[in-house]
Design a protein that fits this description.
Largest sheet: 7 strands, mixed
CATH class: Alpha Beta
Strand order of the largest sheet: 3-2-1-4-5-7-6
Order of helices and strands: HHHEHEHEEHEHHEHHHE
Shape: globular
Number of domains: 1
Distance between the termini: 24 Å
CATH topology: Rossmann fold
Radius of gyration: 17 Å
CATH superfamily: Vaccinia Virus protein VP39
Structural class: alpha/beta
């Protein structure tokens, strides 16, 4: 992974350590929450016999869902040591420590042998990496022949408004996302086949409504807002309004994509 990719990995990992992120987004740090995680895992053909790699796993919420609901063995990797500690503790509490494990690593330098996993999932994180090709090449390497990759992520079809290019925009995975065609091209460059992509924009409406409700609660409790919101957070209400308008105009959306390693 390039130096710039490593810096971005550390920066993005730091975003998801912030208490405000879990407060606004909940345990699942992505649009669609557990419902979309289950849909993505099902579409990627996860089964009780699957060994699954969850790239950029955050606090391990999706890993626990996949282990509990699908019976798979799940390995989560993330750059944030803090989130990995939370993931291990939560799995222990859920009595899923025998079905999950968590490893600290850069997504562009996965510390696993070639051909290790049946499925790799990456939720609302691929667009945050400076070198998407490097990450996909690593995922291709660690998948078994015929193994499947599934991602969920933002896509862009227009330049991002300036108000969405700050900290909150980055936490919401907006800034820097490719187009739908860009994802398809990246999969092809990484030698994946049978690429299937579809829009799941319903997830964005749910996410924005949830974040707005929780911001409204903070607005009534200034002390809590001061304790939770970072000083450089900007105007989150404006960001949400601008994001809604940007999505409605067709400038952005959310997708799930699956493909197979030849």
């Amino acid at each position: 992974m390039s130096a710039s990719s490593q810096v971005l990995s550390r920066c993005c990992a730091g975003f998801y350590e912030l208490p405000v992120v879990e407060y606004l987004l909940g345990q699942s740090f992505h649009p669609g929450g557990p419902k979309l995680t289950r849909q993505l895992a099902s579409t990627s053909l996860v089964s009780p016999n699957s060994s699954v790699l969850d790239v950029a796993c955050g606090n391990g919420a999706s890993a626990r869902i996949i282990a509990a609901d699908f019976g798979a063995m799940v390995t989560g990797c993330d750059y944030s040591a803090i989130n990995l500690e939370r993931a291990v503790a939560a799995s222990r509490t859920a009595r899923l420590e025998t079905k999950t494990q968590f490893v600290r690593s850069d997504a562009g330098r996965l510390p696993f042998a070639s051909g290790t996993f049946d499925v790799s999932l990456c939720e609302c994180s691929l667009c945050l990496f400076d070198n998407m090709d490097s990450v996909l090449e690593q995922v291709h390497r660690v998948l078994k022949p015929g193994g499947r990759i599934g991602i969920s992520d933002f896509f862009l079809d227009a330049p991002v408004p300036e108000s969405l290019d700050g900290l909150l925009g980055r936490v919401l995975c907006v800034a820097g996302a490719p187009s739908m065609a860009g994802y398809r091209d990246a999969f092809v460059r990484a030698r994946f086949e049978y690429v299937r992509i579809r829009s799941v924009n319903w997830t964005l409406t749910d996410m924005i409504q949830r974040v707005r409700r929780r911001l409204n609660v903070l607005a009534t409790t200034p002390a809590a807002a001061t304790a939770i919101l970072p000083a450089d957070w900007g105007d989150p209400a404006r960001v949400l309004t601008d994001l809604e308008a940007f999505i409605a105009s067709g400038g952005a959306g959310y997708l799930i994509a699956t493909a197979r390693r030849a």
